[in-house]
């Protein structure tokens, strides 16, 4: 009897101490619900991600990222100094819902590009006697006295095109040349003009008026001005060039006609000697400053650069940001910008890729064709990118390339591929 009693107690104890399957299931469900509740709570103050997969920043969005110097709200835009990749991820995290899976959002924002100078490197081709003779040696023709004349009905630009065709007939499209010639306009003077080759003809560029009528001041010019300018042979913040040069030009170029232009290159000193320049136009009475010109001189050479200012501008730019859930924390994650270099192949690019791609300006991916194997696209794209984006390739950048393809059906069109050079070989990136 005693043994049976002990056995009964043991069985009862086992029943009460064993796991309750239903209780475990409820705990698991409660834990999952708690995670969901936490996510709902976090997203109460957040906005749903647009179904379109795209979002354009508004003024209030820029302001929310800060309105002080170095912050987007200062000018409602980004720039080289205000990096969108540094501010937008945090903004997206605060504004949009936290997700449990990856999702990409295309964000459009305003980007400011500051004023810049487009340099034109001027190593001039000096016209020879043979060049002038080529244009005619009769009365009043350039070859008669080896110069052009301001009274000629045919302007130098029309003659110089002939000279360039004769001397540089093997030039490449886009090549530029600066030509120096003599012009008689009550006195002889050397002038320069820049031309660009479009693949068929040479045309006068309008990048700079500075190459034509450029004048570099010499010691005697500073002496003629007098005072501190003569003593130090330069201008400064105390003796500003624009205050002295109009009177100097009127004396130096006393025979100037209304409309004549001059770019004056001079020394400027504040903490060290710099080379600066100003563009002047003669209005018939006085020389008027029209604009500053960026100039860099190379010592001991006729080679110098003159460039015209390109105004700053603000333009819309789009960039993809992808939400990536955290692997360490539940209901957390971050927005990551697409740092790849994006490029869409142009028609002329296919010619540089391969003969097969050049034929129809696309990749033929049909069975048995040159690009049936996707690896062939990666290989040839890599070779093309190494030529076009050499510095980016060297730094290990990821490229997102849009290309045209042909598959022999109505499904022809464009596709996107991501490639990167790693360990000396090009690979497709699928992550």
Low-confidence stretches: 294-307
Radius of gyration: 36 Å
- Put simply, the count of helices is 14
Tell the overall outline: flat
Strand content: 25-35%
Mean pLDDT: 82
Query: What is the rounded distance between the termini?
Result: 73 Å
Helix-and-strand structural type: alpha/beta
Give a count of the beta strands, DSSP E runs of length 2 or more: 21
Q: Can you give a write-up of this model?
A:
The chain folds into four domains: 42-114 and 316-337, no CATH class; 119-204, no CATH class; 214-310, no CATH class; 341-428, no CATH class. The protein has helices spanning 2-17, 21-43, 59-64, 84-95, 129-134, 142-145, 156-167, 219-225, 227-232, 241-252, 347-353, 355-360, 374-388, 390-394; strands at 54-56, 103-113, 116-122, 125-126, 148-149, 176-184, 188-197, 202-204, 214-216, 235-236, 261-269, 273-282, 287-297, 304-310, 313-325, 333-337, 341-344, 363-364, 398-406, 413-422, 425-428. The chain has 14 helices and 21 strands. The protein is α/β, with parallel strands linked by helices and 431 residues long. Strand 7 and strand 8 form a beta hairpin. It is 32% helix and 32% strand.
